[in-house]
Known about the structure:
The protein is of the alpha+beta class. About 30% of the residues lie in helices and about 30% in strands.
Amino acid sequence: MHELSITHSLVELATEEARRRGLGRIRAVHLRVGVLSGVVTEALRFCFDVATAGTPLEGARLLVDEVPVEIFCPRCAEPKILPAPLPMACPVCGTRSAEVLRGRELELYALEGELELYALEGRDHDADAEDRGA
């Protein structure tokens, strides 16, 4: 099950991004998963709870947007969303196409969290003003 290693990488990436943006507790992780990505969404959800234990993401929700397969139809000369991943053929005219525009994604695109507030205990007012550029 490669979803466990994917989830561990996702947790590392989300934790680093949260730290970079000054987020403390993370409430939700938003992910786009393409139908052709090879990732089983339910396995990913199961692994997420295991992989987030003891991290800033513990208790966060994993919100997954499934991305359908979109191909470019050469006969219609426009993108078409497929009702199912196979066959790779335009649902309007039936022309087969191997030009996949969307549907392979595995993308962390948003985090919901709380900003960390740092106490400035032991500092005087003038030092705080200096830090703000006043």
